[in-house]
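Here is one chain, start to finish.
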Amino acid sequence: MLALVFALSGAAKLADRAGSRQAIIDFGLPARLATPLGILLPLCELVVAATLIPTATAWWGAVGALALLLVFIASIGINLAQGKKPNCHCFGELHSALAGWKTLARNGVLVTVAGFVVLEGKDGAGPSAVVWLGTLSAAELVALVVGLVVLGLLQPSGGFWFTCSGRTGIFRYASGHWSRS
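Its structure:
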């Protein structure tokens, strides 16, 4: 789960570097850091995702995930304490919303997952994602894929949300209606 979240987040931020840079500025960091951090942060997320997959590096990946998530929680918490709700740009153009208590709660759940892996120690990470997927039957694989797609499409409001980007702009499908933003 952590690998999927970090891979999706990192790839989406790299695909929308301008939005990532703006989010960094919105969170209160100096503009001169926005360009390097706009590239470094998603690359770190992709490295974390990659290291979470094999058992041999999963513990280190969980440590990296924990560190990034704690930085995210601190950044969001500081902004909320100052009365600011910057656009988190957590998943690039795929999903971007104002940082708030829901964002903190989501990161808290992810911290808990990463924390369990870290607490288990270097040898207690369990089977790798590749080995685990190999043990699933065809029906279980289909159920897993369908479940992940449904989770990815569901919004907290109960509507469906889809974003695609092209020459004509960004289109969103929410609660039964397409709109251009």
